[in-house]
Amino acid sequence: MTDRRFDTLAIHEGHEDFAPDSMSTPIYQSVAYPYADAKEAAEIFRAEKPGYTYGRWDNPTVRVFERRMAALERTEAALATSSGMAAIMTLGHQMLEAGDEFVSSNRVYGGTFGLFDEGFRKMGVKVNWVTTPESLDAWAAAVTPRTKFMFVESPSNPGLFIGDLPALAALAKQHGLPLVADNTICTPALQLPTTHGADIVVHSTTKYICGNASSLGGIICGPAEFVEGIRQGCQRYLGPAMSPFNAWLNLNGLETLSLRMERHCSNAMALATMLEKHPLVGSVNYPGLASNPFNAVGGKQVRGFSSLMSFVLKGTYDDAVTVIDALDLMIHATHLGTAKTIVTHPASTTHSAMGEEELKKAGIPPTLIRISVGLEDEADILADIEQALDKVGSAVSTAG
Fold first, then answer.
1. How many helices (H) and strands (E) does the chain have?
2. What is the pLDDT of residue 362?
3. Is residue 319 scored above 70 in pLDDT?
4. Are residues 78 and 215 in the same domain?
5. Which pLDDT band, with edges at 50, 70 and 90, does 394 fall under?
């Protein structure tokens, strides 16, 4: 592992001796690679000689991105996939057999919840949900002799739960289990799960790593033996490969990641502070606030609390809709982690498949609004949410 610092690694790490070389990593938009002879082809396929085999398994542009992400997450290796969900699916396929179980916080992205609750069930695998993930005892109680790993999304989407990574890692180690951490929301610019005991890190690189909503992607970062086991195994027949062009877009995103995350954090803190004081807001979920229950544990693990937040509006679902529809600057979309501020209603979109009961368990009421705070001018962001909330206030005043 190089001793260069984060911003330098984010710009330079993994760049090979391309011929001819270039300032920007070349895009190898090819699915096949000619070999000198049959002997060389066989050696490369047996991993006895460096080289590339087939676009579904490896690619020079993708490999640069993988090496750079591994360096930033402080792991030995990384494997890029076509999406964040593909990363988690591939990870699970590698680690689980029919009849196995695993433990996960229920505070996860809606797609992850669906994969764990339904997708893995169809594969004969059981997830043991921890519905009070703040409690280490609840995690311990969910572990069984069939458990193969523990999974935590921290911070979580959209409730911003933050897991006590050192404590969870210690519990996992006690049971001889790996701890898998989803670091999508903070990115390695703000949090390094492996330094707190996590064994494997996953991301949806579609979010902050890319940074502008232009490309899907996922990454699995971990020990070289584990990652290469996936590359030589299920990666070949599952086919969740990242495209060379998307890897190139993600590499470009990494070059500004640290700077962007600083701005994301400062804008989000300003908005959370304003919302916390607003009379129409019941509660604000942003761990950067001193009043937030995860502020203390998060402060020990992160350099900043990222841009994702949610707040619960006083009123009804219709009031939440009124606020969302009244926004002018903010974009209503089911995405996060971009330069543009995005607003979402999780209960009716990203997490709707969970159902009413599971939404309640996960702390996602119909009046919860999620915001991914972008890089626009802070004053413009605050003004937009203020005028939208005024629409609800005016309606209440008129009705009264």
1. 17, 12
2. 81
3. yes
4. yes
5. low
Whether residue 250 is found in the same domain as residue 354 = no
CA–CA separation, 92 and 90 (whole Å): 5
Whole-angstrom Cα distance, residue 23 to residue 1? 23
pLDDT band with cut points at 50, 70 and 90 for residue 45? confident
Please give the pLDDT value at position 92.
97
Final residue in a domain of this structure, among 225, 254, 283 = 254
Q: In which band, very low, low, confident or very high, does the pLDDT at 272 lie, cut at 50, 70 and 90?
A: very high
d(CA 343, CA 324): 7
Give the CB-side neighbour count of residue 209, counting CA atoms within 13 A.
Answer: 30
Which pTM was predicted?
Answer: 0.92
Q: What phi and psi values does residue 37 have, to the nearest 5 degrees?
A: -165, 180
Q: How far is CA 114 from CA 231, 241, 249, in A?
A: 25, 22, 28
Helix (H/G/I), strand (E/B), else coil: 150: strand
Domain that holds residue 379: 258-399
> What's phi and psi for 54, nearest 5 deg?
-155, 150
Same domain, 201 and 289: no
